[in-house]
Amino acid sequence: MVKPRTIRNLVFLLGDQLTPDISSLRDADPERDLLFLCEVEDETTYVPHHRQKLVFVLSAMRHFAEEMRETGWRVDYWKLDDRSDPGSFLAAIECAIRTHKPERIIVTEAGEWRVQHMLDRIEDKTGIPTEIREDDRFICSHAEFRAWAKGRKQLRMEFFYRDMRRKTGLLMNGEHPEGGKWNYDHDNREAASADLFMPRRREFQPDAMTKDVIALVKKRFPDGFGDVEPFRFAVTREDARKALAHFVAGALPKFGDYQDAMLAGEYTLYHSILSGYINIGLLDPMEVCKAVAQAYADGGVPLNCAEGFIRQIIGWREYVRGIYWLKMPGYVQENYFEASRELPAFYWSGETKMRCMREAIGQTRETAYAHHIQRLMVTGNFALLTGIEPRQIHEWYLAVYFDAFEWVELPNTLGMSQFADGGLLGSKPYAASGAYIDRMSDYCSGCAYDVKKKSGKDSCPFNALYWDFLIRNRNRLKGNNRLARAYATWDRMDDGKQRAYRDTAAYYLDTIEEL
Ligand code: FAD
Ligand code: DLZ
Ligand code: SF4
Questions:
Q1: Were 505 and a residue from 29, 40, 224, 468 both cysteine, which residue would form a disulfide, CB within 3.0 to 4.6 Å?
Q2: Index of the ligand 3 atom closest to the CA of residue 451
Q3: pLDDT of residue 235
């Protein structure tokens, strides 16, 4: 508890603003200003967060507060278990104002609409002048994205990405992209095989502070989703930088080639597992991209890998944030296919005979992490094919990953994965049959279902469900050129084959909980 004495500004820092040079701190004065961070019930329960995500965010907040104190700042930090919990951010701010009587409140804009809506009300509610500053950890501001989107019929990531390359100068030779092309994605679609040289993620042992948070989370959320231990994420900037260096040296040289591959028991393959660190502010997106561009310039990393990685950050990451703020608050209601099915219980338990789903959900429960293709082409694809209500699958993704914050999760789930925005973000739905999963993984070999069997008993559910999805939604999708071949294939099938697909799909949908 910080002794009450004259405070000029109360600088309110949110749990994903753990960056020493964040805009709210820029002209702050350690003598006159006070940093305020609070753990509150509402934030820990607005979705049933994975318990490692809770440990990750709360422990990183506590470490950040300590780091700031050590560098001379006055910090008031409220732990969830320290005092009677104010419940919400707004209630916490009101208490903090009563205690510290600041002249002003300074805060950097929130990542999520829900929290920004609260920030916008602080001044009215408390009567204390409140300054909300832009979050310039992002490369593209809201205004810049709005200007880019204005008047465009289609908001294609590829064109936005080129502007971000020009703006940052990453992998550029003057006005021209390094190597002559903007995008090397066509070099990036190999299936991996388990080998001795598979990179291993950098793991970090919990220190005393993290162990305290683990105990807190176990006590408060005894039946919460996911394993609490082993907990191996970094929770400080110093360790997150070690994870970045480890990725650049080990996995980056093959990142592009195996970006879409999936292997049973291999949770991270050539991915970076840096998303959570970037999202809460332990790593700066430009710092990460510069490290990757430098490794390319030094000669140890091929261009397709460096470009592919940088595109994910200055392209996709910035683009989905732009879409989120352009379209919220209405975006969360989108449901293009009018899908209404309940999310099957196995999304939480992992108990399903479908091996691809069991592996993806099982590792999610164990580690709070799954890589992009597992999210998009396994759990996301299944929800799309079976017509799960978008809001339910959105809340699942928002809960279960250590990197999940709505501004990045929602456009990826609703837009990219579920096509619930009718094609704002993607040019066609990411719907695929079992053949795709079989090509990109080794899951099918150990599955109770037969990926080669198209319909009937024991056939891979993704096969019949794929056709059923296309036919069920034909009216909405028939104008999409990228699906014309699929519809032509369907139309060439004889009635018996078509009926077998539809009957199998109907059976699987009726018995979805038993799959
Ligand atoms: P890598 O494969 O190593 O990629 C490098 C970095 O690029 C990531 O750390 C991330 O910062 C960025 N990135 C890559 N793909 C995307 C993308 N599509 N959108 C935004 N940034 C991207 N990402 C989140 O950070 N939080 C989420 O809540 C989230 N939810 C998702 C939900 C669904 C349904 C899907 C399909 C994707 C989601 N993603 C989310 C995007 C992506 O899957 C994760 O960023 C990635 O898997 C994180 O693992 P990594 O750090 O090993 O990524
Ligand atoms: C995710 C999260 C959790 C679980 N708990 C807290 C918390 O107790 N206090 C806090 O400041 N932030 C927390 N966060 C992160 C916030 O939800 C995050 O800052 C907002 O989503 C940003 O819009
Ligand atoms: Fe998944 Fe079908 Fe392969 Fe089984 S056979 S792992 S359900 S794609």
A1: 468
A2: 5
A3: 98
DSSP 314: I
The length of the chain in residues reads 515
CB 438 near ligand 3, within 6 Å = yes
Looking at residue 154, its pLDDT comes to: 81
Average pLDDT of span 419-436: 94
Question: What is the C-alpha to C-alpha distance for residues 46 and 49, in angstroms, rounded to an integer?
Answer: 8
Among residues 309, 306, 300, which one has the least CA distance to residue 271?
309
Mean pLDDT, residues 389-414 taken together: 98
Ligand 3 mean position to 380 CA, how many Å? 14
Q: Are residues 411 and 298 in the same domain?
A: no
Tens digits of residue pLDDT in 491-506: 999 999 999 999 999 9
CB of 413 sitting under 6 A from ligand 1: yes
Tokens of 205: 């042992």
486 and 351 within one domain: yes
Q: Which residues make beta-bridge pairs with 38?
A: 78
Measured in whole angstroms, the distance separating CA 508 from the mean position of its chain's CA atoms is 30
As a whole-number percent, the residues of the chain with pLDDT over 70 amount to 98
Which tops the pLDDT comparison, 2 or 52?
52
pLDDT per position as a tens digit, 268-317? 888 999 999 999 999 999 999 999 999 999 998 999 999 999 999 999 99
Which protein residue has the closest C-alpha to ligand 3 atom 5?
451
Residue nearest to atom 52 of ligand 1 (CA): 273
Shortest-distance Cα residue to atom 14 of ligand 1: 312
Looking at residue 5, what is its pLDDT?
60
How many Å lie between the centroid of ligand 2 and the Cα of residue 484?
A: 44
Residue with CA nearest ligand 2 atom 4: 44
Give me the amino acid identity at 146.
Answer: R
Alpha-carbon distance of 287 to 289, in angstroms, equals: 6
The type of residue at 464 is A
Do 153 and 125 share a domain, yes or no? no
Question: Are 289 and 310 within 8 A, CB to CB?
Answer: yes
Which secondary structure element, helix H or strand E, spans residue 9, and what is its range?
A: strand 9-12
Domain identity same for 192 and 249 = yes
Cross-strand pairs, 106: 11, 131
Same-domain status, 128 and 160 = no
